[in-house]
Amino acid sequence: MIYVLAKFTVHTEHRAAFLEHSRKVIAETVKEPGCIAYDVAESTTNTNSFTSIEQWETREALGRHFETPHLKEWARILVPMTATLETDVIHSEKIEKLQPRSAPCGVSCWPDITLA
Q: pLDDT at position 116, please?
């Protein structure tokens, strides 16, 4: 399994169009074989900063995604909208998953963390 984090800084005047086109590419991408999850999150500290968060069964499935018509169209539209774009592919054998603990109120919390 692999994860992809694609970080975008969008020009202010293209923010609405970016969100509209993101919704379209998400709707098509989640139908692709090998796509486990695909979404875009907005920064809480920079209204023009977004991160695409993707989960794929294999690197080959991600490679096929790059060849789809909807992603090629998205890339063509995206270039003039963005000030920055940075993409990281994370391979699952190097990821540690933390399991939440349950708080007294029954809500899941972060694991106990000791800070030095």
A: 46
